[in-house]
Structures are given as structure tokens and as C-alpha cells.
Recover the amino acids of this structure.
């Protein structure tokens, strides 16, 4: 059943953006919501369009309406050529390169641009907003190259490609019902007509950090889930190595007074509550591969502290917990913001009078800084996860797990998870390159009129890739930890897992059996990655 989302420029939630981008499953196909403007938003759009006309009638220059753009800001456009200027503007901005954005990003961007317009300050027509929503609701997805934006003045280039579909530029491509068609053909197939843009609308369509925001919302939403998966991975690894709970004692974390750290430690204790593998008794049981240290009487010595990758997990993951939630809050505010230039406002002295103010609400820096922080936070989760996975493969670090987590059938021939850990190491190493903060860079553009740009589009694309690769890296640890548990349960007398870890272990084992003999691991890994992306594993902490 199709759901409906109504836009008013004020109350859009990030969950609604994610739903609009990704839809939901109904049987064997995806269903996307219908998006509409509220009646109040429609009235707002009509009112502020009239406001733009009031401003224009005063005969003063209005940037992007009766002037050129960027370094051509002082070029005055005669009234009779304003509509023609819109036709020049869009194709000249279509210079994107690289592979196309995923469709989910384009869907989110269309929705976000309309919601920004719904506030009224851009002064665009109601008809333009409805035409954009028609693209979404009819399933016409512009094919938009992902590179070419410097993140100021907004995502000029990708938004121009979106607008090229709206206006029916023949060289622009769109996807409709699985077919890649020219923009005019796609509109025709969907029963739509090209839009003829009026004054200021070409610039309004492109003046916003809209694709940066769309990518950021999806990446941060995925990162929020990844926080949970990271906790589950750590908890399963603690079960596999019969780790010590003392490191997660609340007294330690309250003594440091870092809120994220306190929350993470508490979640680990909740996931492992009731575990018999993590008791002192179970740790004292010898495993065949364990390097055992004994006192002079031959008694096994108690363990003293696990390695940092487990013992310091709450300290490492605590700040990412805060960073990801802070990013979501910034994106929520941006999703309900006017991000255009100039903006139209009511006169404070006369409600029937309006003024036009030029500024830079399109600038991507507020998002770029957040996205650079987001990718660094997520990378720290993936990096420490891979360190734990490496420890799982070494008996000297894993307290007796078989070397490389290899199965016992044909033991001398098995490689186990040696190369799975290599693959994870490759991912987290590449993440380190992607974590270079793009927002610290700037290159002057537009004849120095736009002399400080954000490069936030690069931050956004890299953040999304870091989240994607980190999901795979953490899936690898989950796969390896479950293997370690399975390989040692019998030797340890089948002790119980914690309440949360047992549920997670069972969910993984429903799709991936223990590996007693080497097999094609790629299939197992993809199943676990799919499990994480489905969100089903979140159920164990709800």
C-alpha cells in the first residue's frame, strides 16, 4: 500500500526522507510513497511568488532574476529576456562527470528541494514544485553524474541535470520503468510535459546543497544503524574470546563523564547479560589452541585485561555515538531550511510588501564539516572492528580459538578466515584515504566572486562510501565472531551466550551455518551484509 508524505517546509523528518528515497517492500517489488504539498504550503508558494513580483516591480536588480549569475552578477537582463535566460542557464550548468548517482539519492534530492521551496522564500511558482513532485510520483528519475559540484553555490551542476529533465532538454537522460530515455521521451512516457521556467526559477532550482544533504541523510541514517551493529560485533567477539566484563563496568565510564562512552558500555553489558562464556569459570577452561600461562604449581593464571580493541571499545565508540546523532540533528534542520539566493521576505512594516535579500544559504560548509566528522567517526568503528577480527584469527590473542578460525574438517588444508580479515583490512585502509577532510579545501571559482567554496559534495560522497565499506568490515567481524563461538562451544561445555548475543548469533546462524571446512566465503559474507542492511538485526536491541 502506498503511503503519503505531505510537505510544508517545516516538519519533514529524516525517516520520511529515507522512506521516500528507498521505499518499502510489498511482495516482490518496491513501493514508494506519494509526495504532496500541504494546502498551507501551496498558499505560501502563491503568496511569495507574488512577493517576488512585488520586488521586481520596484525596478531594482534582483540577483538571478534580472541579473546574470556569479561573476556576471552586474549584467542586467531586460524584462523581455528573463524567460529566455532560464533556457540558457540550465544547459550551461549541465557539466557533470562520473557515474550516475544512485536512484535513492536522486529521489531524496527531489523531495528535499521541493520542501525547501515550500517555505516560500525562494519565490518559485506552485506549478514548478508540483512538476518536480510529478517526476518523483510518476517514477521519472533523472540520470545525474555524481561529480562536478564544489558545494557552493549549492549543488549547481547536479541540480542542473535534475532540472534538465524537468525542462525536457533532449540531451539529458532519465530512467523511466527501467529504461534510459531522453528527457523529452521519459516525460512523454510518464504522461508529463516539459516545464517552461519563469523568472528566478532556473537559479532557484540549482541554489542549494541539496544532493549533499540527500547523501548525508542516507549516510548518517545508515551510520546510526551501524552503531548498533558495531556494538553487536564487539559483544559477539567478547563471547568468542571469553572476554572480561570489567572494562564495561559503569563505574569506570561514569568516572570519565563522557556520555557516549557511558551509553556504549551500558549497551555492551545489556547485550552480554547472562553470558556463561564470559564468566571467570569459563575463562579458566583450557582450549586446544590456547597458549596457557600457569603458576609454579601448574595452575592456570587468571587473565589480566583484554587488548585495547575490546577493552577500550566504549572509549573509542562513545564519541562516534555522539557524532552520528549530532549529524542527524544538523541534517534535520537543513531538511527544513530555505537554501537559495536571493530570498524573499515580507516587509516588517507592511505585510503586503516584500523585500529581496542576497546571502549564501546555499553554501555547503555547515554540511561538509559535519560529513567529514561523520566519516571519521564511522571509520573508527570499522578500524577497531578489524583489529578485533585480526585478534580473533591469532590463538595468542584469541585465548584459544583455532588459527584463522579454520574448521576442524581437513584442518591442515583449511585457510579459514585468514583472507576475510585481509579483505577487511583493505576496506579500512581505503577508508583512511577517503577520510581526508574535503571541507578544509577551497578553490576560487567564478572570477573570484565565489572565492571560498565548501567541497562538501566530496565530503558527502566519501562519507557514504566509508559507511558502505564499514558495514562490510563489521559484517566480517560478526561472521568471524560467530565462527569462533561455534568452533569452541563444545570444548567449553556449551555455555550460554548473553541474551542479546544469543539472539544475534541465532539470527546469523539462520542464514550462515558454521564453517567446518573451507567453502566459498563470499556467499556467507554477502548474506551477513544483507542482514545488516535489512535492519532485522536491530530487533535484538529494541
Amino acid at each position: 500500500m502506498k503511503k503519503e508524505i505531505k510537505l510544508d517546509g517545516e516538519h519533514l523528518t529524516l525517516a520520511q526522507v529515507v522512506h521516500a528515497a528507498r521505499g518499502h517492500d510489498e511482495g516482490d517489488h518496491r513501493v514508494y510513497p506519494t509526495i504532496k504539498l500541504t494546502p498551507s504550503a501551496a498558499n505560501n508558494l502563491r503568496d511569495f511568488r507574488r512577493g517576488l513580483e512585488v520586488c521586481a516591480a520596484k525596478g531594482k536588480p534582483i540577483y538571478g532574476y534580472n541579473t546574470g549569475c556569479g561573476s556576471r552578477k552586474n549584467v542586467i537582463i531586460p524584462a523581455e529576456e528573463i524567460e529566455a535566460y532560464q533556457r540558457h542557464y540550465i544547459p550551461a550548468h549541465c557539466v557533470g562527470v562520473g557515474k550516475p548517482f544512485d536512484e535513492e539519492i536522486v529521489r531524496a534530492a527531489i523531495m528535499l528541494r521541493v520542501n525547501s521551496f515550500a517555505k516560500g522564500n525562494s519565490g518559485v511558482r506552485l506549478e514548478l514544485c508540483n512538476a518536480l513532485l510529478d517526476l518523483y510520483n510518476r517514477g521519472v528519475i533523472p540520470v545525474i553524474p555524481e561529480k562536478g559540484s564544489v558545494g557552493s553555490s549549492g549543488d549547481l551542476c547536479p541540480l542542473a541535470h535534475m532540472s534538465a529533465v524537468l525542462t525536457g532538454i533532449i540531451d539529458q537522460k532519465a530512467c523511466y520503468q527501467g529504461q534510459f530515455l531522453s528527457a523529452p521521451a521519459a516525460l512523454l512516457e510518464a504522461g508529463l510535459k516539459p516545464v517552461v521556467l519563469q523568472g528566478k526559477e532556473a537559479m532557484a532550482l540549482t541554489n542549494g546543497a541539496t544532493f549533499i544533504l540527500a547523501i548525508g541523510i542516507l549516510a548518517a541514517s545508515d551510520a546510526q544503524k551501524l552503531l548498533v551493529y558495531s556494538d553487536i560485533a564487539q559483544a559477539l567477539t567478547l563471547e568468542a574470546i571469553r572476554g572480561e566484563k570489567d572494562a564495561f563496568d559503569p563505574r569506570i565510564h561514569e568516572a570519565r563523564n563522557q556520555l557516549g562512552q557511558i551509553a556504549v558500555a551500558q549497551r555492551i553489558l545489556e547485550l552480554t547479560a547472562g553470558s556463561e562464556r564470559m564468566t571467570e569459570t569459563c575463562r579458566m577452561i583450557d582450549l586446544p589452541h590456547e597458549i596457557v600461562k600457569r603458576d609454579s604449581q601448574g595452575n592456570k593464571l587468571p587473565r589480566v585485561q583484554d587488548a585495547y580493541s575490546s577493552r577500550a571499545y566504549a572509549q573509542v565508540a562513545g564519541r562516534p555515538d555522539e557524532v552520528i546523532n549530532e549529524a542527524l540533528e544538523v541534517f534535520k534542520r537543513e531538511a527544513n531550511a530555505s537554501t537559495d539566493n536571493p530570498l524573499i521576505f515580507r516587509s516588517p512594516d507592511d505585510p503586503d510588501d516584500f523585500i529581496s535579500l542576497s546571502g549564501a544559504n546555499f553554501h555547503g560548509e555547515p554540511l561538509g564539516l559535519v560529513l567529514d566528522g561523520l566519516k571519521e567517526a564511522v571509520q573508527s568503528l570499522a578500524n577497531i572492528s578489524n583489529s578485533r577480527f585480526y585478534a580473533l584469527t591469532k590463538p595468542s590473542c584469541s585465548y584459544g580459538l583455532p588459527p584463522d578460525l579454520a574448521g576442524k574438517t581437513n584442518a591442515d588444508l583449511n585457510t579459514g578466515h585468514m583472507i576475510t580479515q585481509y579483505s577487511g583490512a583493505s576496506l579500512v585502509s581505503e577508508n583512511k584515504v577517503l577520510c581526508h577532510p574535503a571541507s578544509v579545501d577551497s578553490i576560487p571559482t567564478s572570477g573570484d566572486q565565489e572565492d571560498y567554496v565548501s567541497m562538501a559534495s566530496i565530503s558527502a560522497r566519501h562519507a557514504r562510501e566509508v559507511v558502505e565499506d564499514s558495514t562490510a568490515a563489521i559484517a566480517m567481524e560478526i561472521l568471524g565472531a560467530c565462527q569462533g563461538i561455534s568452533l569452541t562451544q563444545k570444548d567449553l561445555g556449551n555455555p550460554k551466550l548473553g541474551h542479546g548475543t544469543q539472539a544475534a548469533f541465532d539470527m546469523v546462524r539462520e542464514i550462515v551455518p558454521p564453517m567446518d571446512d573451507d567453502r566459498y566465503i563470499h556467499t556467507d559474507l554477502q548474506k551477513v551484509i544483507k542482514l545488516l542492511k535489512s535492519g532485522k538485526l536491530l530487533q535484538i536491541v529494541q
Observations:
- The domain at 217-339+361-541 is CATH 1.20.200.10 (Fumarase C; Chain A, domain 2).
- The mean pLDDT is 93.
